[in-house]
Write a structure and sequence with these properties.
Elements (H helix, E strand, L loop, with lengths): L1 H17 E3 L6 E4 L3 E3 L4 E7 L4 E4 L6 E18 L2 E16 L3 E5 L3 E4 L2 E4 L3 E6 L27 E7 L3 E3 L4 E9 L2 E7 L8 E5 L10 E5 L2 E15 L3 E5 L2 E10 L9 H4 L2 E10 L2 E6 L10 E14 L3 E3 L4 E11 L15 E3 L3 E9 L2 E14 L3 E5 L3 E6 L4 E6 L3 E6 L8 E2 L2 E2 L3 H6 L25 H29 L1 H26 L2 H20 L8 H10 L4 H16 L8 H23 L1
Parallel strand pairs: 1-7, 3-11, 13-22, 23-30, 24-32
Antiparallel strand pairs: 2-4, 4-7, 5-9, 6-7, 8-11, 9-10, 12-14, 14-18, 15-20, 16-18, 17-18, 19-22, 20-21, 23-25, 25-28, 26-28, 27-28, 29-32, 30-31, 33-34
Length: 611
């Protein structure tokens, strides 16, 4: 018995020595919604990835503390290559409420970790006024008894926001299509796209991933908003140009008004996805022609605001030494129309094609950044030379006038280059044999001494090698043709493609849900898990999301002979996600269990579908 206790103690000591705390820097982060509504409570959360003490928060001016701080701890252990690493997360949660509207800052908090003081980031919070009129219920407009629903245009609409409606030709216009909603929108997709006739279009990089609704007060009501599309337009001619209306199809989750059978129906079986066509209105833009008076000869349509700088590597060189003249154009506007300035170099200079480096980024003011042009040239003989000034012109939209930027003229002193200087002759640059030899020995003259003539080889046409050279590429081409034709047929079958990619898309959403789990974002976590499960079933069963209900899911899975226990687990996950809206005290552990259950159920279903 004593020996057994000794073995157990040794085993515990070995395990304890193997567990190593993850060697990562201490992170102390403050988080809160960037936009809130007056008189509505929200949470301010401080999170640190280490055991800490002595939390000190700043004065929360302009906010009332309703509750907190509530402290929570979590710890995880991970085994990798026989070693264990542990991580700790401690969070302090305050429930606060704004006292008035405006934009306010919350300073940094501090705490102590291992005897060292650690500070958090600060926050900026915008407080919107309360709704002027009470918001309509999400189920407003539902028809009684039938489970069908309609949503009014006051509860969901799309605006086409234009940065300017009166501009000059080639002046950038920012157009943003934004969704405003008071209802639960599952998705909103465009139907085609406007032609944007009369404009050149420069799209922004659309950031994909988990985009949350942002709050915005519009006409006295607070809407959840979401940017659907954003682009820059450059008008190409003067006059009134219209941006046509754009149709979108939204899938909205609404509450049924069927007869309630029990109190649980209100939690689990009372929602339906319906489609609604929404139109963003047309917008008219007044485009003014660029002034014809005082237009510089070097103007080529560039509009915006720019600066021009230049520099040269050296003004005192030797013949056959390379020299670089660099021009740097920076600013914002339609920079892609800027042409390389024409530089006139003296005769006898060997000039190479300029090297152009564009470092552009798309901003609300247009394309901004820098354009660098490097001219490399080589003076081939000595003397004093001048590289004349060059210029670029543009129309400044702020001052509404043309501007011309010029580079300075550069005087170049070229000394004789160690006997390698090339003579200058009328009619062009002439280089003799001695010059070529000394310039780098990269060109050889025709050989004049004795040389041997080799015998011409027999042609290979008609031999086995020749036929193989024909047959092998032909066979490979035939195999590739059959393969790609099969791939094209399979890709044309959208149902099959969605079916194959269903599991991959579900795993991608669940990875995002895992990130939200670690961040403690409860609402977004449950929303992402629900989307992953519904989308997976929609793609696997080839049924639109709007037509899926739990009863139909059970019928379809039974038709595939899926185990009853798996079906119950799947339905339980959906019920848990919906119930989470009414369970504000749901903890991190319950969310983690739900995440693991969802991965397991989808994996079990995937194995069943493969059979």
């Amino acid at each position: 018995m004593e020996r057994k206790k000794l073995y157990i103690s040794l085993l515990l000591i070995i395990l304890a020595t193997m567990i190593v705390r993850a060697d990562e820097p201490v992170r102390f982060v403050a988080s809160a919604p960037s936009t809130v509504i007056l008189d509505k409570p929200f949470q301010l959360v401080y999170t640190v990835n280490a055991n800490a003490k002595d939390l000190r928060v700043p004065e929360l001016n302009n906010f009332d503390v309703l509750a907190g701080p509530f402290e929570s701890h979590s710890q995880s252990i991970q085994y990798v290559n026989g070693k264990s690493t542990s991580s700790v997360s401690v969070s302090y949660t305050y429930t606060i409420q704004a006292q008035k509207t405006g934009t306010f800052t919350i300073g940094s908090a501090s705490l102590t970790v291992d005897g060292k003081k650690v500070t958090s980031n600060g926050l900026s919070i915008k407080v919107l006024p309360a709704d002027a009129t009470p918001p309509a219920s999400k189920s407003q407009g539902n028809q009684s008894g039938g489970g069908q629903a309609s949503v009014s245009g006051d509860n969901i609409f799309i605006r086409a926001e234009v940065s300017k409606t009166n501009v000059y030709e080639q002046e950038a216009i920012l157009v943003t299509y934004k969704l405003y909603t008071l209802v639960d929108v599952v998705q909103c997709n465009p139907k085609g796209s406007p032609d944007f006739n009369g404009f050149l279009k420069q799209d922004f990089d659309q950031q994909q991933g988990n985009k949350q609704l942002a709050l915005e007060n519009y006409n006295g009501r607070n809407y959840g908003t979401f940017v659907l599309y954003k682009t820059l337009l450059y008008p190409q001619h003067s006059g009134v140009i219209q941006i046509d209306k754009w149709n979108f199809e939204a899938v909205i989750r609404v509450q049924n008004r069927a007869q309630v059978r029990s109190i649980f129906d209100d939690f689990f079986d009372s929602y339906t996805n319906v489609s609604k066509l929404i139109s963003a209105p047309a917008v008219k833009i007044t485009v003014n022609a660029l002034p014809s008076a005082n237009k510089p000869a070097s103007f080529n349509g560039t509009v915006g605001h720019f600066t021009l700088n230049s520099n040269i590597t050296s003004t005192q060189v030797k013949a056959n030494d390379a020299v670089t003249l660099k021009l740097n154009i920076s600013g914002s506007g339609n920079m892609k129309l800027i042409k390389n300035p024409a530089l006139k170099f003296p005769d006898g200079f060997e000039l190479y094609d300029p090297k152009v480096i564009n470092n552009f980024k798309t901003s609300i003011a247009g394309v901004s950044g820098t354009k660098t042009i490097e001219y490399l040239f080589i003076p081939r003989h000595s003397g004093n030379f001048e590289i004349p000034s060059t210029e670029i012109s543009y129309f400044d939209t702020q001052e509404k006038t043309y501007k011309t930027l010029r580079t300075p003229a550069y005087k170049l002193q070229v000394a004789k280059g160690d006997g390698t200087e090339a003579p200058v002759v009328a009619g062009g640059n002439y280089v003799d044999k001695q010059d070529v030899k000394q310039l780098g020995k990269d060109i050889r003259f025709i050989q004049t001494n004795k040389f041997e003539i080799s015998k011409e080889e027999e042609p290979v046409f008609g031999t086995l090698t020749c036929w193989l050279l024909y047959l092998i590429p032909l066979s490979i081409s035939l195999v590739l043709f059959i393969f790609f034709r099969k791939q094209a047929k399979e890709n044309a079958n959208l149902v099959l493609v969605k079916n194959r990619k269903a599991n991959k898309l579900a795993q991608k959403r669940l990875k995002l849900a895992q990130k939200l789990l670690h961040e403690g974002n409860k609402d977004a976590f449950y929303e992402e898990v629900m989307k992953a499960t519904w989308t997976y079933l929609s793609d696997k069963l080839s049924i639109p999301v709007a037509s899926l209900t739990k009863e139909r899911v059970e019928d379809e899975l039974n038709a595939y002979k899926v185990d009853t226990e798996i079906i119950k687990q799947f339905v339980s996950i959906l019920n848990t996600c919906e119930f989470a809206r009414f369970a504000p005290n749901t903890g991190q552990q319950e969310m983690g269990n739900l995440y693991e259950d969802t991965i397991q159920v989808i994996s079990n279903l995937e194995e069943k579908f493969k059979k």
